[in-house]
Structures are given as structure tokens and as C-alpha cells.
Amino acid sequence: MPSIRMLEAPQPGHDAFGPLPANGGGLEFGGRLESWTPDALAPHLQGYTQVRRQMDAQQHRRVNEAGRLYADVMRNRLDPVFLREAMRPSNPVLVEHLRQTYPGLYRDTYGRTLGLRETMAVTDYQALYADVIDRLYYSNFQAWPINNMALVKEQDLRDFRYVKRYLYDGLVTPYTSSDPGVQPVESAMLGPAPQNGPIPPTPATSTAAITYSPLLYQASASINWAAFVGDDLGIFRDVPKRLAIKGNRGIAKFITQQFFDVNGPNVTNGLFSASYHNQVLIANGATTDNPRLNIQGLADAYNIIAGQLDATGDPIMIGGPVNLVYGAADYATAKNLANMLENFTTQQGGMAGTGQTGQMLRVRNWAMENLTLVYDPYLRLVATSAPYSWELVLDPKSQERPGVEVGFLTGFKEPQLFTEIPTTMRMGGGPDPTMGNFWTQNQNIKIMGVMGAGIIDGRSLVGSTGTGHA
Predict the structure, then answer these.
(1) Residues of the chain with CATH 3.90.1690
(2) C-alpha pair distances (Å), 159 with each of 210, 364, 417
(3) Positions of the chain with pLDDT under 70
(4) Among candidates 445, 455, 414, which has minimal Cα distance to 250?
């Protein structure tokens, strides 16, 4: 009869492996662990360490065998189906082949054969997948606003024919006293300056109409069906948005080109001229010629606008809101002027002190009170030789004669998007919009706009090239 050995309970302060470290080890010792040194704990961790060593050895063996299998598959020494069986065992024949060829590859748990489930390294994804996992598509910049639309008078046009705009001066001079028995002097309507002559005393006589015709502006995009099939990031979904930006940019640049040319305020189309007296020059009453954007330049520009005369030599009452047009080179300057609280000046009311006691005038920022900032990002791209150009433009809706008129064909004030009707359809079915054109499999999209512009009268605005003193 086999003997039965009774295990005795360990004495206090001991366990099955011997005495516990002093001042710690169990709940009865209050949890003070400062005496638990590695040497003191070693006997109590022998079992755990042995099991962990065995598990590490098995894991290292699996990793090595998995690496061999992966290398054989990548070098075409083994069919890729074996790599799939290593991950998800299902075919007993293939599994047995892998057991014999790559010992330790599988792990048996309670009679189940577990495939590879190790965590892959970052570099593994590049080999196992055609592309990275985390991909993101950033669309284009935000929609483009037409900042300078407020500078022009908008008109609806019925068709593509030339439009005519007539201007007449006269019959507005102050009347004078006369003898009751004498017939009053008759006056005639005259053509406006400077269409056919200089400012008074020799007013223009031409009554020719101002003409312009609208033109078609368009752009298109063509996207192949294969590109749509391969697009899993939605890259082509924002094509209409990009075309809309293209249209808005076209309108914004078109307006900029009416007010500016390569050398600054546009003299090429006649908007700015010596006859209009609408340039910030000493000859027109300015302190300096073509100053940079500053408070003194604005004061000179206001004086020039206030001194404008019509074709018969009488003053023009010009009022309403004012727009300050500037480019990227003066962005910070314009913001500083708009937020300036007070101005100290020795001019326009103050005295510099030459010949008499100097006086500095302290005034609030009146120049910006009725003024709207209009940042024109295309200014520096159009006025390439004068990027510091700036203009004061009176609100065209408040003037009988605006500086510039822009006409849009009815229905095309905003650019319009169009798409080609798909001509590809399945037998017995309807058109397939993703297939596009029958012969090319392209989806064609385009944006269209119809517009034109005419220069009306330059006396409601004044400009500087910004090439003078800062």
C-alpha cells in the first residue's frame, strides 16, 4: 500500500520555499516592501521565471519560423496560399506540411491549432500591403470670394451684341440774372470730357457712345472612368468646387485688370488720365507724387476727389461710401490705418513751424470713418511694376456715373457648371453616369461665364502708383 505523505502548513513568516523577507511579503506585514531585494525574491520567483523562459523560447521559435515562411513566399519558393494557411489554418494537408517544414510555427491550445497572430511591426505593412493603411486627402484651398465686385456697377446683358452707354454734360451750369425783357441764353448738352477734349474751358463736343460686348469665359475638366474606380479617397469629388474657384478667380482678376495695369492705376484703358485729374500728383493738389499708402496720401486723395469738375467747369458733388483698394504689399498698412485712433499732423490745419511757431494738430481718425477696406489679392499680379499701388473708389451704386461697368449675360452673373450627358449604357438598361462618353469613358465637366466691361468715367476715383515717398 503506497504511503501518503502529509504536507505540513508552513510556519509563520515562511512559505513552501523558505522564510519570507523581513518586514514584507503578506498582508500581515503592512505592505512595507523596502526589504524586497532581487536576491530575497529569487527563490519565490523560480517557478514563474522557468515558465516565462519556456514561453519566450517558444515565441522566439515561432517568430523565426514565421520569418522563414515569409521569406520563402516573398522569394517565390513557396505558394502564397501557405502564408494564408499559417494565418488561418483550415486545410489539414497544408497545415501538416507547414508543421513539418516549419516546426514550432503553430501553437496548440486545448486541441486547437492556432495560426500566427503576432503583432506586426511597422515595416511589415509596406511588404504585406500595396500602400499605407492611414491615408488622407487634403482638398484645395477654400472657395474664392470676389472681394472687388463692390468696385463696379453691375448690369444684366440680354445677348452678345455690343452695348452702348451715352454720356452728356451741360444744362447744369448756375443760372444768372438777366433783364426781364431779354430772352435767356440757351445752352446745349455737350459730350463729356475727356472723350473728345480736355477739361474746360474747351469742353468736349463728341456724343459718341461708350461700347463694349460680353465674351465667353470657360474652363473644363475630363475624368476617366478608370480614375473614378481607383479613387478611394474622394479626390475627384471636389472637381466642381475647383472649377467654381477657377470661375470666381477669373471674375476677380478681370475686375482688377479694369482698375490696374502693369504700372499701377490703369492708364491703358483711359480710366486714369491727365484729363480726369484723378491721380495723386502734385499737379492735382497732392503733397507728393504717387505716395505710398499712408494717412497723408489718403488726405490728398480726398482733396483731389473733392476738387473734381464736370465738363462745363462746375464742381461735382460726389458722396457716398468710399472703398480703399490695396494689395498684399500694403495689407498690414491698411489694417493699421483702419485701427488708428488719432493722428498728429502739421499739415491740413497744423503748422510745421517755418516762419512762425509750429503747431501739431491732434485729430481723430476721420479718414477711415466712411471707408471700406477692399483687399485685392490680384493687384500685385497685375500691377507687377507697382505692387504698392492703391486707389480710392467711390461706391458705384451711389454715383450717377460709376468708374467701371461690368455686364454679365443674364443667368451667368455667377459662373455656371455643366456636365456632358453620359452616352454609355448597358444592354437593356439606362445610361451609366460613371462611364461618361461611349468612346473615351470620360466624364466631362465645364464651367462657363459671360461678361464684359466698359470704362464710364474716372472722376469718381483716384489712384497712386505707390512709387513715391513712403
Answers:
(1) 147-176+184-464
(2) 17, 50, 19
(3) 1-51, 107-143, 192-206, 346-358, 469-470
(4) 414
Residues 6+ apart with CB under 8 A from 139: 238, 241
pLDDT at 154: 95
SS3 21: coil
Beta bridge partners of 6: none
What is the C-alpha to C-alpha distance for residues 331 and 341, in angstroms, rounded to an integer?
18
- Residue type for 452, please? G
CB 394 within 8 A of CB 322: yes
Task: Tell me the three cell numbers of residue 20.
Answer: 519570507
Question: For residues 78 and 51, what is the distance between their CA atoms, to the nearest angstrom?
Answer: 35
Which residue, 188, 173, 176, 175, is CA-closest to 312? 173
Whether 206 contacts 314, CB under 8 Å: no
Residue 464's pLDDT is 96
323 grid coordinates: 472703398
For 29, residues 6+ apart whose C-beta sits below 8 A from its C-beta are 20, 23
The amino acid at residue 401 is: R
Letter for the amino acid at 204?
Answer: A
Residue 27's pLDDT is what?
44
Which pLDDT value is given to residue 235? 78
Helical residues (DSSP H) of 341-449, grouped into ranges = 379-382
What pTM did the predictor assign?
A: 0.67
Q: What is the CA radius of gyration of the chain?
A: 43
Three-class SS state of 435: coil
Q: Please, which residues have CB within 8 angstroms of residue 326's CB and are 6 or more apart in sequence?
A: 293, 333, 334, 373, 374, 375, 376, 379, 390
pLDDT reported for residue 467: 92
For residue 120 the three cell numbers come to: 506586426
Q: Please count the residues of the chain.
A: 470
Max CA separation in the chain (angstroms): 163
> How far apart, in Å, are the Cα atoms of 400 and each of 130, 154, 194, 202, 317?
67, 13, 17, 23, 11
CATH number of 147-176+184-464: 3.90.1690
> Among residues 267, 259, 254, which one has the least CA distance to residue 408?
254
